[in-house]
Amino acid sequence: MLDAAIIAVAAFLAGVLNAVAGGGSFLTFPALVFVGVPPIAANATSTVAVFPGYLSSALGFLPEIKAIDRRELIYFLGLSIAGGIAGAVLLLVTPSELFSFVVPWLLLFATVLFALDHKICDWTRTEAGPTTFGKTAATLAVTTYGGYFNGGLGILLLSLFSGLGFRDINLMNGLKNALSFILSAASVVTFLLAGIVFLKQAAIMMLAATAGGYAGARIARKMPVKLIRMTVIVIGLGMTLAFWLRS
Q1: How far apart are CA 221 and CA 219, in angstroms?
Q2: Side-chain half-sphere of 63: how many Cα atoms within 13 Å?
Q3: What does the pLDDT look like over 87-144, one tens digit per residue?
Q4: Does residue 245 register a pLDDT over 60?
Q5: Keywords in UniProt for this one (predicted)?
Q6: CA 203 to CA 80: how far, in whole Å?
Q7: What per-residue confidence (pLDDT) applies to 80?
Q8: Residue 43, exposed/middle/buried by CB under 10 A (0-12, 13-18, 19+)?
Q9: Alpha-carbon distance 113 to 90, whole Å?
Q10: Which residues of 81-116 are buried (b: 16+ CB within 10 A; e: fewer)?
């Protein structure tokens, strides 16, 4: 009961964070490890727990998504499926000891991305678009990262779109949520087929995260943006330190 309460609270707060700023994985993944789920299985279970929220977010930007050229949208979705599966398979073949060593660095990387998201988008913004090969390689790299470790995915996708020449922030957010849902769904199917998802914990967290997302939408209208961002950064750094000490 105590374990169920811990992961439910973590998932609820993750839903709130994802709704107002992102960074929910900083809570769901560590909570699962804390209650005894092995790190690789915890990463997979955390992905299952939070991925439905991407769909509701994408639906909120449906008009912007419909405005994207159909062929380009199919192109991005196809690469997201490929990247999501590739990242999930890469996670499955990663030795547990290696993943435990890499986790603090991934958490730190995701936290730095979140802290510097606006600057990163500015750095990647260019007037000249990349080559088709560069566009494909960059998209595959980002979506494979998302399939392997979900933290910081949103910032990476926004930076990618900015570098590819997108300028409409609402369209970028809509595409970001659509690709996040598709690649996470591909990862989830791979994890489920591999049998590494802790289904009971995932079910509890999905319900709690959904409730947290609904509450977060209301909270977002009242909390200062700077306070929200600082909260995510502090949580990310705290979790990074905790996993470094643990490893």
Answers
A1: 5
A2: 2
A3: 999 999 999 888 888 888 888 887 787 777 667 666 666 555 567 888 899 899 999 9
A4: yes
A5: Cell membrane, Membrane, Plasmid, Transmembrane, Transmembrane helix, Transport
A6: 24
A7: 94
A8: buried
A9: 22
A10: bbbbbbbbbebeebeeeebbebbbebbbbbbbbbbe
Give the model's confidence band at 20: pLDDT under 50 very low, under 70 low, under 90 confident, else very high: low
Domain that holds residue 143: 2-246
* Residue bearing tokens 């993944």: 29
- Cα separation, 105 vs 147, in Å, equals 17
Q: For the whole model, what pTM was predicted?
A: 0.80
User: How many folded domains does the chain comprise?
Assistant: 1
What whole-number distance in Å separates Cα of residue 76 and Cα of residue 117? Answer: 21
236, amino acid identity: G
pLDDT digits (tens, 9 = 90+) for 48-78: 988 887 777 777 778 888 888 899 999 999 9
